Amino acid sequence: MWDTDIPFSDRCAARLEGYRRSFCVWTAHARGSVDSPGLALGLVRDRTSYCDGVALKLDNARRDAALEQLWEREMWTDIYRPIWQAVTASEPLPNAIVFEVDKASAQYAGDLSVDEAAHYIAIAHGVFGACRDYLYATIGALRENGSYSGEFDALYNRVESLRTNG
Fold it and tell me: pTM for the whole thing?
């Protein structure tokens, strides 16, 4: 949503029914290390939830290159299952590719408590920077998109508390 490095021709607000966004993916490279793993977001199937975000429309002329780049970025481990899902958007869209967390993967951290997740997020750092910066950028992008419902407020507050109080 905020790290859209693939080429796209348009973007719009979108809602994915039946999923929730969760810090449930171990990262020992991007935002963490083997000694201090971080957590990344994943889409978890949850029939009672929905996930607001952004749908990217790929330009037909660059579609194949964009999909290849997206595949290299998201599918280099076994944590995600790419699936076609219907999304509700501010403009008509066909089904979208979404990357659902595979709970059978060793990278699946499960449903951690706020305190557990905050512990990892507050201290982890990887090749793409601090895990807490990933949390902050996500909240910022959700706010900018008008889709932030406060779902990460407790996590943000706990991470800040750990940073300032040790």
Answer: 0.90
